[in-house]
Write a structure and sequence with these properties.
Number of helices: 16
Helix content: 55-70%
Radius of gyration: 23 Å
Order of helices and strands: HHHHHHHHHHHHHHHH
Largest sheet: none
Strand content: under 5%
Shape: globular
Distance between the termini: 35 Å
Length: 362
């Protein structure tokens, strides 16, 4: 499952009246600013304030990172600081400013690791750091080398696995856990790595898939269609590797249930169109497959690359279809021309009211 689309929230903590080394007014001020960051749709509007807040926080954060004991209120401060740095690191990645993002990624990781050293069962730190690694992995999704993304997903899996052990009934923990495992499985399948690990992952995440398919009507309002379709595709791939005929029969047998879920919750996102095109191509229904392929938008950040389309085995049934060939020729041309016109350059302006932080000092 592509983490980027999950509706997950970071937690913002507020202080108690217990004694803390950091003044309570400073803790409350940072908590209030964290709320502002979380509620702001475009961080560019408050970017100078974010950088200034992170810079000013170092006088408290750096001693906490070196401390052997962190009080509760100080941990609240560190939690909110980590939320701000993680949000800013992600914002910089969205602006295609990878080098600028890396120092803030490191600050986020350091803060959460300090919190987990204080309390290994801190559910908020486990959740937020796991979500942070999962989100960072998204930005490596188009790399030819899967290693950086896999490393982030492995870290996220470990954290969400710990959360599941602490509270396996929590719906958010379940969603995060299965999403990371699904994303990891997708990566391994794409790069044809470690089939035994693929089977291990599928044995875990087939639980929610079978739950959805066993009684689709009761699940209609609780399903993210994109994530559901990815589970369908992944289970199909595992079956197809072992027995292609069994895989196609399974897909055909469950077609009506899958379509019922999709028709109820389809959001017309890029990934849903992608998986539906593959779904109908596998069922040898080219008209339906082409319908969803034609929904692809080259301007979408998640736009499927022409190479991915060519190399996708689930679309192999369409290769000789004349209408598909015409569509693909036009899509490839539009995709390449769009990226020539709008290259992915760092969008952050150099004329800032607040000077960039000297990250070497921290």
């Amino acid at each position: 499952m592509k983490i980027k689309y999950l509706c997950l929230l970071l937690f913002s903590l507020h202080h108690s009246t217990v004694y803390a080394d950091i003044d309570l007014s400073e803790i409350q001020s940072l908590a209030d600013f964290t709320d502002q960051v979380m509620e702001t749709n475009h961080l560019s509007t408050i970017e100078p304030q974010i950088k200034l807040q992170i810079q000013q926080a170092q006088q408290y954060v750096q001693p906490l990172l070196k401390s052997t004991k962190i009080s509760y209120n100080d941990s609240v401060y560190l939690h909110n600081y980590a939320i701000i740095t993680s949000q800013y690191a992600e914002y910089l990645l969205e602006q295609h400013c990878v080098p600028l993002s890396i120092p803030y990624q490191k600050k986020t990781e350091e803060a959460y690791l300090a919190l987990l050293k204080r309390d290994p069962k801190d559910k908020i730190a486990l959740n937020n750091l796991g979500l942070f690694y999962a989100k960072m992995s998204v930005y490596y999704r188009k790399n030819t080398d899967p290693t950086p993304r896999l490393e982030n997903l492995n870290k996220a899996e470990q954290l969400f696995s710990s959360l599941m052990k602490l509270d396996s009934e929590d719906k958010e923990h379940q969603t995060n856990y299965y999403a990371v495992l699904s994303d990891k499985l997708m990566l391994l399948q794409k790069h044809h790595r470690d089939f035994e690990e693929q089977k291990r992952l599928m044995n875990i995440i087939k639980k929610p898939l079978f739950k959805y398919l066993s009684n689709p009507k009761s699940q209609l309002n609780a399903i993210d269609t994109g994530n559901f379709l990815i589970l369908v595709q992944q289970y199909f791939k595992i079956l197809n590797t072992e027995n292609p005929q069994t895989a196609i029969k399974w897909l055909s047998d469950h077609q009506s249930k899958i379509e019922a879920i999709v028709q109820k919750n389809h959001k017309y996102t890029q990934r849903e169109n992608e998986f539906l095109a593959e779904f109908y191509a596998l069922l040898e229904q080219p008209k339906q497959a082409l319908h969803y392929l034609k929904q692809f938008e080259v301007s979408n950040d998640e736009a499927t690359t022409p190479d991915s389309i060519v190399n996708e085995p689930n679309l192999a049934n369409l290769k000789l279809n004349t209408e598909y060939q015409q569509w693909f020729k036009q899509y490839k041309y539009d995709y390449e021309e769009y990226r020539k016109a709008i290259p992915k350059l760092c969008k952050i302006t150099q004329l800032e009211t607040i000077q960039p932080l000297d990250v070497k000092n921290y």
